[in-house]
Amino acid sequence: MAISLQSIRTDRQWRASTGLTKEQFYKLVELFSTAYEEMFGESITDDSYRKEDGRKFKSYEDLLFFGLYSIKSGLTYDLLGLSFDLSPSNIHAKQGLVLSVLQSALEQGGYMPKRVYHSDEEFIKDWNKEASIMVDGTEQRRQRPVNQEAQKKDYSGKKKVNIQPV
Length: 166
Description:
Elements: H1 11-18, H2 22-40, H3 47-53, H4 60-73, H5 77-84, H6 88-108, H7 120-127, H8 148-154
Helix pairs in contact: 2-4, 2-6, 4-6, 5-6
């Protein structure tokens, strides 16, 4: 039994699974579908996508739901695979695809927050009208890459996890 968009019935379930209301979700689907078609030059319903995907995500709604659910739930690839009846490697690939399309959609719609400031003046200009600012600096664990260069790029040196026997 896989999780599906069709099983969501209440606003509470919409918010719990996607972080959005039903109306917000379908507005985002419009942006998402446009961004997808601009990135790949074809619709999600084209045969090339369906053959590659094994027809799991047949619509923009299904693909976006999967992506938002995976972000909101924080489940591992193994559990997401179990939830959506896909292999963990396929889940990883699909999540990366959704995130890149979603980022493009949010940028095109003017909803993506600015992440880089090149000067203090630029930062102050953008945030001067706000009474307070909260910065989320949460680090999340991830699997260590096999490639040595990728390990160096991702190494923060901040946290050492030592598991002590009980």
